[in-house]
Amino acid sequence: MIPTPEACFRLMETYGMLDNIKAHSVMVEKIALLIARGLLDAGETISLGKVTAGALMHDIAKTHCLESGEDHSAKGKTICLENHLDEIADIVAEHVIMKNYEPLGPITEKEIIYYADKRVNHDAVVSIEERLAYLLERYGNGRERIRQAIMRNFSICKEVEKRLFSKLNFGPEDLPAVLESK
């Protein structure tokens, strides 16, 4: 099932999502929808419902995992499955690291949310490079293996960015201005 936005906000309350994580999720949803609508206009087959729900729910387990130390994307997938949200479970599972990226396949909602998440630092739209710098400082400081994993992940993100924006009538650098104009 694909939850409505209202159902997503209820689940955020149920799982005690912190307000700052909620604000981040709402901004990810705005960016993801902007990209998804542009892709629809370009002839791609995208479910706006899946994009909305996947973006709002992508960090559903983050608050819990800040305390438990668990992988919030894996725990988020479990939460989705427990709540019969099978259609967005893989989106939530792969919003941090794209495990099943198919560069020659059709553009998916999973790629859109993965990318949108990499463009939001807290609740502000930033470039991929700014987000990368933040993540390297926050999670990779002094941990070379984690730094390398973050760098590999961002090379995939750059590929996804090229792929998405090759179909859109604006560039990645225009995203903040286009978002503001909507």
Q: How would you explain this protein's 3D organization?
A:
The chain is mainly α and 182 residues long. It is 66% helix and 2% strand. It has a single domain (5-181), classed as Hypothetical protein af1432 (Orthogonal Bundle). The chain has ten helices and two strands. Helix 3 crosses helix 6 and helix 7 packs across helix 9 (144-165). The protein is globular, with a radius of gyration of 15 Å. The model has no long low-confidence stretch (mean pLDDT 93).
Rounded average pLDDT:
93
* Biggest sheet: strand arrangement: 1-2
What's the SSE pattern?
HHHHHHHEEHHH
- Which structural class do the helices and strands define? mainly alpha
- Percent range of helical residues: 55-70%
Got a strand count?
2
Number of helix segments?
Answer: 10
Radius of gyration: 15 Å
Beta strand %: under 5%
- CATH classification, class level: Mainly Alpha
In angstroms, what separates the terminal alpha carbons? Answer: 29 Å
Write the layout of secondary structure elements.
Layout: H1 5-14, H2 19-41, H3 48-57, H4 62-68, H5 72-82, H6 86-93, H7 109-118, E1 120-121, E2 124-125, H8 128-139, H9 144-165, H10 175-181
Antiparallel strand pairs: 1-2
Short description:
The chain has helices at 5-14, 19-41, 48-57, 62-68, 72-82, 86-93, 109-118, 128-139, 144-165, 175-181; strands spanning 120-121, 124-125. The protein is mainly alpha-helical.
Keywords:
single chain, 182 residues, mainly alpha, two-stranded antiparallel sheet, 10 helices
